[in-house]
Sequence to fold (298 residues):
Amino acid sequence: MSQKEQTRHHQEEILTVDAIVKEITTLVTMPAVYYRILNLVENENSTAAEIGEIIAQDTSLTARLLRIANSAFYGFPSSIETVSRAITVIGLRELRDLVLATSAIEAFDHIPLDLANMTSFWNHSLYTGVCARILATRNKVLHSERLFVAGLLHDIGHLIMFLKLPKQLRNCMVQAGREDIDIQVAERRLLGFDHAELGSALLRYWKLPDSLIQTVQYHHEPALAEKFRQECAIVHVANILAKHANLVEYVSEKTLNYHPAALRLLNFTEDHAEEICAEADLQFNEAREIFLPKAANG
Fold:
């Protein structure tokens, strides 16, 4: 294939991804309250009280955030009764990220269960988020809550495929299992793009932070990321730790191999895996009760 043909082929792939994402955004949208909070967080003159007033207009969101703030997931010694207090204790950026996490789950809440095992999907995603949060804390990453969100949303591209390309995704899973290859490799062969590219395109369309977009796009290949390599490495390792926890239906042996660059960047060895998973196990059930109440209760 000539360079000109390769360029045209690549452009066609981008257009295909863009077309899918534009179509999906008519079905799944981020709530307006998230963008209002995002604008306030980015405004240095905003106060916790102002943000609290915006959140208080959404009673369901208020209840979830207060439950999160008072959970063992954070372990604050005293009861937090108001959103403004939660903002003060947790932090503006961290609270923004928690709103993002709950909003993203809610955006895809209506996916028919006959297309995918959504309980399995969100269990794996949530466990990845919990592990990413632990790894971020251990590596002293600033605002570690954003890594929880990155882990939670790392496979969001698969949700798009469940909605718009269910048969094609099933074919990719079959090929990945038959040939013992990574699912993203099968996706690229059959579709011309993978779920990481699709997911990052959706987050870009939603105008989410660039660090989150990059982390989702390169969570399988962190060494390819031009920016935010540490964040990409964290979610890469967290994703593999979650796969070891057997929370997904399909796992290739090859997907359980850590990228050497990620291990070096995090000073991580497989000896650390058991310790991190033990800590994640303690947090997972409570996080599941908070973020996935439907799955946790039935």
